[in-house]
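Amino Acid Chain and Its Fold in Token Form
===========================================
What this section holds: a protein sequence and its matching fold, both as plain text.
Structure line: whole-number tokens from a learned vocabulary of local backbone shapes, matched to residues.
Purpose: to set a sequence beside its fold so the mapping can be learned.
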Amino acid sequence: MELLHTAFILPHLLYCIESWGAASKSRLTKIVTIQKRLIRNIHGLDRLTHSAPYFRESQILTIHQLYDLRLLIISHQNFYSSTKTNKPHTHTTRHQTLALDDTQPDKPINNYGLKHILYAANKIWNSSAVNVREIRQISKFKIAAKEWVSRSS
């Protein structure tokens, strides 16, 4: 059953999650409910059984954890990209930028701004563990980030 989840359901959940993953709680309720039902079916549980321990046991991430993981991966790719054109430089200009781990995004003025991908990506990157952020190789980073996301939520 877990293999079916990974092969058929996970790709649909991950498709454009950067865009819709920050949707309001009421919009994601149906997906969360279906995901909980799936985890209960995988383990053959009653419909009233609490699902959180079984997500951890199966190493399946919830929709919110998948969103956080994707934002971490995007931030990592942005921070360690070899094709980055806006590298910080030593002389002062109006286009000088900070490294991603040094950024403090401006506080948005409304809820839409709080859910904007740039604000959310910086927030999750800054809140992640330093030892995870320092991993340069993307394959190792994905493993460490998934582990961190599953433990932190």
In short: The first helix runs from residue 2 to 14. The chain has nine helices and no strands. The CA atoms of residues 91 and 97 lie 11 Å apart. The chain has a mean pLDDT of 83.
